[in-house]
Amino acid sequence: MRAAIIGTGYVGLPTGTGFAELGNDVVCIDKLTEKIDMLNDGKITIFEEGLEELYQKNRRAGRLKFSSDIAQIEGADVVIIAVGTPTHPVTKEADLSCLFEAAEELAVYLKKYTVVALKSTVPVCTGAEVERIISKKNPSADFDLVSIPEFLREGFAVYDFFNPDRIVIGTDSARAIAVLNRLYAPFSPKTPILITTRNSAELIKYASNAFLAMKILYINEISNFCEKCGAKIEEVAKGMGLDSRIGSKFLKPGPGYGGSCFPKDTLALTKMAKRYNVSLHLTDTAIEKNEERKLDMAHRIADIMGAQSATAAILGLTYKSGTDDVRQSPAIDICKELLRLGISLRVYDPKGMQNAEEQLKDQVYYAADPYDAAANADALVILTEWDEFAELDFNRIRDLMQSAKIVDFRNILNSRQVEGFLYHRLGCGVHPCSLVNS
Ligand code: UDX
Fold first, then answer.
1. Buried (b) or exposed (e) across 89-107, using 16+ Cβ within 10 A?
2. Residue pLDDT, tens place only, 283-318
3. Residue of the nearest CA to atom 16 in ligand 1?
4. Are residues 49 and 164 in the same domain?
5. Same domain assignment for residues 279 and 140
6. Domain that holds residue 281
7. Which residues pair with 315 in a beta bridge?
8. Which of 391, 435, 388 is CA-nearest to residue 417?
9. Are strands 167-170 and 193-196 parallel, antiparallel or unpaired?
10. Is the Cβ–Cβ distance between 184 and 167 less than 8 Å?
11. Cα(325) to centroid of ligand 1, in Å?
12. pLDDT tens figures, 392-411
């Protein structure tokens, strides 16, 4: 089949590459000509596990092409729109301007029956609006506007593309369902394909992300309680997760959730609901408490460090491991609060240094590696769960540091590794200092 993907970001590029790998002819379109030039030159523009290999393979095979000219959608069986829908700075709702622009531009190139599918995360009824925009611009266009929400995790986008828990197709058009059933045929029968109304499909995405955000908030709250009552969060989470109604995933305590989706989607969901005079109290609380969590984490670090003119070595700046993305990263907010409290920072991240520099500017020292970060520091603070942080030589780290303190907000170290350190982890013992070893 012929597919066109509009938007070559964290969703569009893995999606386009994935469909090319499945044997389709794919053209990925983006307005940013520099991006397209790079992709045409064989240079991948994002870091995503396993993506580069598939991108190179399919590009060479001629199944995966790139263009900044939207006219290239002409002749596609399916046009997938995967442009960003960031939080609007003023309204805090999803900013749909790029999406509407793309719809208006593509309309004139719909010259045969085409399924136009929205993969961007959009508020309920956006599909109807996009349908209106296209029909107004090109009244003779023969198309169906369908919602196919994405559930790709950053860092695992390739894995998630090929191993989805479900595929949701929001439409009442039998013609569109037939086309998408062909596109998704390689996933059948392993993956359930759920056909819903367009509005339901649009809401499924927001409702899922908000639920997962609340699950994280909940485990973080229980983790706080564990610290006071002497329970251990890993044991509690394991015991909870074995209940199949709860499930074991998304029960890891941390410094708060971040990334380009959860913070944006929870905000957009409550804003959207308010337009219908519906209050989503749980989601509102999750947004508020997640912000508080990040500040609380910074103040805990400051408490543990004691002196105001202290230096912290920060390991991890991305919002989770496996990505170079620092958008809405708790680590960045924690760094900003620590700087405000007068603490000097020596920071290191295996993939996120460049992006972090745009946020933290020249206010911190950018270390060459974790050992450089630890040099003369008063505390080593782990904010992202990179595997390499659990493989460090902690004897060497201890010798390098001014004061042997570790704050592990991802709970990745074991008691053997932290021997000889004052060690603080989440959800264990009594706050503020749960001393495994001292
Ligand atoms: C999320 C959704 O999982 C995905 O389905 C959707 O399409 C896009 O948004 P992503 O933003 O890539 O994916 O990250 P995810 O792996 O879900 O993690 C989000 C945040 O939650 C991270 O900051 C992570 O550290 C945090 N988290 C996750 C926890 O603190 N504890 C957990 O147990 C799981």
1. eeeebbbbebbeebbbbbb
2. 999 999 999 999 999 999 999 998 778 999 999 999
3. 153
4. yes
5. no
6. 262-433
7. 348, 382
8. 391
9. parallel
10. yes
11. 12
12. 999 999 999 999 999 999 99
